[in-house]
Design a protein that fits this description.
Layout (H helix, E strand, L loop, with lengths): L7 H4 L1 H13 L6 H7 L4 H7 L3 H25 L4 H18 L3 H9 L5 H23 L10 H13 L1 H4 L8 H14 L3
Helix pairs in contact: 2-5, 2-7, 5-6, 5-7, 5-8, 6-11, 8-9
Length: about 190
C-alpha cells in the first residue's frame, strides 16, 4: 500500500508494531514494556523514539486518518456521479479496513476514546470531518424529501462497515468483493 510521505509510520517501524499490539491487546492492556518487547527494544530505547504512550496512540490514529483521506476521501471526491461516489466510498472504506488490514485504521474504531484533552479534540475533529464527508456522499443519492435523514443514514452505513473487521476472516466463505456488493445492495435497497 502506498503510504503518505509525511507519515511517522513510514520512517519508524515502531508505530506499525505498536498499532499491531494495540489492535491485538487494546490500549489500556498494553504497556510500553509490551511495545518495547514487540519492537525488540529496551524500554529506554523505546522512549528514545516515543514521548509517551498517549502520543504514540495519537500518532497511530492520526496516520489511520491520513490513510482514510488518501484511500477513501480523495479518490471519491473526484467522482461526479452521486451513486458511483457512494458505491466507491463503500468499496474503498471496506477494502481499507479488511483487505489492507491496516491496524492504524482499526485501532481508530475502538481506541480513540483513550486519548485525552487536546489530542482527543484533534482526533474528534478529524473523525467528524470524515463523518460529514460520508453524510454528504449519502445525501447525494437521497431524494429531496429524505435529505434530512442523511446524518442517520451515514452513521448507519459507518456502523455497518466498521463492525466488519470484528467478524470478517480472510479466506473465509465471504470474499471482500462479495461483502462490498452485499453491503452496497443492503444500504441502497434494504434487506427485504
Amino acid at each position: 500500500m502506498k503510504r503518505s510521505s509525511n507519515s511517522a509510520s513510514l520512517h519508524n517501524p515502531i508505530y506499525d508494531i505498536a498499532a499491531q499490539v494495540f489492535h491485538k491487546r487494546g490500549y489500556d492492556s498494553t504497556s510500553m514494556s509490551d511495545i518495547a518487547h514487540a519492537a525488540r527494544l529496551t524500554k529506554a530505547g523505546l522512549y528514545h523514539h516515543i514521548a509517551s504512550k498517549e502520543m504514540l496512540l495519537y500518532t497511530i490514529l492520526n496516520y489511520g486518518m491520513d490513510l482514510t483521506d488518501e484511500i477513501v476521501m480523495r479518490p471519491v471526491l473526484e467522482i461526479r456521479d452521486p451513486l458511483e461516489r457512494l458505491k466507491q466510498l463503500i468499496a474503498r472504506h471496506l477494502r481499507l479496513i479488511l483487505q489492507e488490514r491496516n491496524h492504524e485504521v482499526t485501532v481508530i474504531l475502538h481506541e480513540d476514546k483513550s486519548l485525552r484533552g487536546t489530542l482527543r479534540k484533534k482526533m474528534n475533529e478529524r473523525k467528524k470531518h470524515y463523518i460529514d464527508f460520508v453524510e454528504k456522499v449519502v445525501a447525494g443519492v437521497l431524494p429531496r424529501r429524505r435529505k434530512s435523514k442523511a446524518r442517520i443514514a451515514a452513521f448507519a452505513l459507518l456502523g455497518m462497515m466498521n463492525w466488519c473487521y470484528q467478524w470478517y476472516r480472510p479466506g473465509g466463505r465471504i470474499t471482500v468483493p462479495a461483502l462490498v456488493n452485499g453491503m452496497t445492495e443492503i444500504f441502497l435497497h434494504g434487506v427485504a
